[in-house]
Fold each of these.
Amino acid sequence: MALGTDEIGRFAGFLKEHEAALVESWSHRVADGLRGRLSQTELNRQIEELFRALSEALDGGAGTVEDPNAAELRAVLSELSRSRARQGFTSTETAVSVFALKDALLAAMDARQADAGTLRDFIAFSALIDELGLFTFASYAAAREELIADQAEELLELATPVVKLWEGVVAVPLVGTLDSARAQVVMERLLDALVTTGSPYAIIDITGVPAVDTQVAQHLLKTVVAARLMGADCIISGIRPQIAQTIVALGIEFGDIATKASLADALRHVLRLSGVDTRRNGRKDG
Amino acid sequence: MNAEPQRLTVASDQDVVRVRQLVRTVAVAVKLSLVDQTKLVTAASELARNTLVYGGGGTVEVDRVDNGRRAGIRIAFVDSGPGIADVNLALTDGYTTGGGLGLGLSGARRLVDEFDIDTEPGRGTSITVTKWCR
Amino acid sequence: MERVPVLKIGDMLLVSIQVDMEDQTALNLQEDLADKIVATGCRGVIIDISALDIVDSFVGRMLATIAGISKVLDAETVVVGMRPAVAITLVELGLSLPGIRTALNVELGMALLARARFEAEGGGDAGEDDETVAAAS
């Protein structure tokens, strides 16, 4: 519900008249809610900035948060939500930072012995502040989602290192659940590593993968086939007994793809293929 | 807010190459990942060739789309050739009437996110594919 | 009409595809290679596709045909340098290029050809005789 032009004018006037008192009591109330987890200076700066942005928006005739003249105000609110989200405050604590202005307003009006008109104004002002609060809430949620997406991406990066085991042999030790998105990243990483290192052999070790279902197996198979198309051989290692049972039970066909129980077995297999002597007492003289 | 759709006529081998180049340019512009670019351009190549070989030529229209959450590319391949009598059969791996590998249509479908085919014998074929950014 | 150059290096033919080929260019390459294998008596063909950003079913079929033709002409074909994104796409497309040998790069491809020849000739001395014949022709 948008504020009328008169109400906007009165609101702006009221804010100007009581600026010092309002900012102080607003900051005070917010500080109570945040229980000292933000420095007083930082908080004062935020509140002053917010207050100034609100005043300017009202001066510009903005009666709702969506008004084009409230762009600056929206930016300040988003920034506030974003920083709160990143600092680990809850959504309630963040929204309360805005809603506290209502209490501050009420306190300032009480002091003037409110009449019916003032109360009507208060309700109208409150409606605008509610809008601001909801906007903060939405920005907070968006900021959190961004944060989660960023972290998920970082996790993908972290969780899939491709290591060089030997001249011409790279390996990916997979740890954790392999969903479609991760499988795709692993696949691309591994294939890129084959090209950049010129390694004709790759080992995918699934010791750290808790379960293999048809979809995971499908991704592994696709990776192996893609590597083959590029001219590299892929071996799957680290198949635990339970996983071997699931694979057979699900009827997953690994075809002629080499599978080994451990990474060590896989490496030995690969080295034998590439002609390196892997016997313990391998005679290298002669 | 979307840019104007770009349209190409497919009447020769060279036009198939042009379709590939246009699709790649647009795919890069909407920031598809490298693998998705490759998949889309490959699908476009298969379908543009179908338009030329089976449809006797036609048009390709490349359009940037946005569903509010993600950006993407939509490509429409339209010909007024003989059409396809049995779509399900044509979408089967290995089925071919043109001496190819029979992977064009079925393979292209696996390379895109959305695949719509509208065809009727004697009325031509129109295939629309969409690929979204991840 | 553009043609893809076929280079002779030692007793191998090297084809490096650098352009987005029209279908006709691919068909021409098929013919040129067959002619060149016969003319030079080369026993190995390396096709470098590292510059190709896509391989569709048409190019896939061309590669398979070249491999088949060279086999009949007693030469071995190795396709080298396929990009990861291309390989992933081919798997999704359902094209597994059966009967085609592949290697990561030209160097590994040459090693593969040398090994294949060594094995085909029983790992013995027979190879030298063949080479003398090829060189004399």
Amino acid sequence: MSSAALHDTRLLTARSLRHILRSPDTIITTAITPIAMMLLFVFVFGGAINTGSSESYVDYMLPGILIITIASGVAYTSYRLFLDMSEGMMLRLRSLPISRSSILWGHVLTSLAANAISLLLVIGVAFLAGFRAQASVLDWLAVAALLLATTLALTWVAVIAGLSAKTVDGASAFSYPLILLPFISSAFVPTDSMPKAVAWFAEHQPITAIVDSLRSLLTGSGVDASIWVSAAWLLGLLAAAWGLSLYVFARKTRG
Amino acid sequence: MQAIEVHGLHKSYKDLHVLRGVDLVVQPGSIYALLGSNGAGKTTLVQILSTLLSADAGQVLVNGFDTATQPRHVRESLSLTGQFAAIDGVLTGRENLLLLARLRRQPDPERAADALLERFDLTEAASRRASTYSGGMLRRLDLAMGLVGGAPLVLLDEPTTGLDPQSRIQTWHIIRELAASGTTVLLTTQYLDEAEQLADRIAILHDGTIIQEGTLADLRKLLPPATIEHVAKEPTLEDIFLNLVGSASTPEGATS
């Protein structure tokens, strides 16, 4: 990125971050549903769930909750982008002599910041609910990198939704399947407890790999093969969503 | 060099042939009105001039730069105020202007913002979120944002649609000031009196072509000479309204 593009991106990120500072409820609502789910699972359902491992249930399911947090957090990106598209703001920005990519990156960087805060909130409550990690500093860094990569990839999916949506509701509807996806993965119950077809799906979808990687990092078991599967999924998704975003952006903004 | 030069411009949306061979020349420093009813293609033309849309055929030069091959130079040399307010409602009026001033790389963004707030009578509301502004205030802020950076060409797409009479006259005043300071103004309007009041030249866009172009005097010549009738001069409703609400400037008084 050229220094001019960085300058524009910094300004537009600051603008978008200000939206979050002025309506902190977007962060609270992002964090509150996963927190409620976590408490429900830990203190209501958890006693009846047999994960087949010795770790406490909150340790087991936190990675899935973190993915749900990200999936609901990125919906705000498509919402804000949709508003820019439907109000005159996008026309004005595009009529300025600024870098075009900065218009999208401003929203994407804001999403990274907002989701990081939501994730910290959720992890904080998890600690209060009894979550304990055996992770080293290096493990934690790997956890942070994985969560960041997941947020980045899903944010670009959100960008596609925000650019192509026709209504406000449509802009955030894409996030519902994303929020449900962790339930059909190893996030809350081991996949071998599921019917055969469902288990097959669960074992081969990206959330299972990501959740397994996060879990093994947090429990201090180090990395296993799942981290490479996760990395491959995330890089693939990131490349596809980013490319498609740029394509949709170019198409939507060219007559 | 002309501020705007358009030759043989065509533009279609799927089956809809919106512009069918538009030719247009706008001289620097003038006010040019593009008159047409809804759907005549005014906005399409403005968006092509500001590089938001690409032309299907024809050549478009803005301040000597080709919109097809030098879009960046075109964007540097004009500013657009579209038909719908392009304002971030979460930011204050001042923050909106500051954002634009910084994106346009003004040497002193703070001063540029404050000067525009002052000029558009928004100083008092400067630190309020734009979403709390009235319609007239939003339109003024929108116009102000279009002037950040002092581009030599200003495109105004229906600048007074939806404004109350006072704001409308205020807007006219600002447009005249802009032209007086050497800025070229191209505005679209569906109000005949607006074109009559402001424009040095008027083009009538109808069904995708410019069917007539010239000064107001030129256009008047198209019709038979005026017949003299004796009509008692009654104040217009606008005169009465402005008198009652105590506006400092009457429509005539706003004429520079």
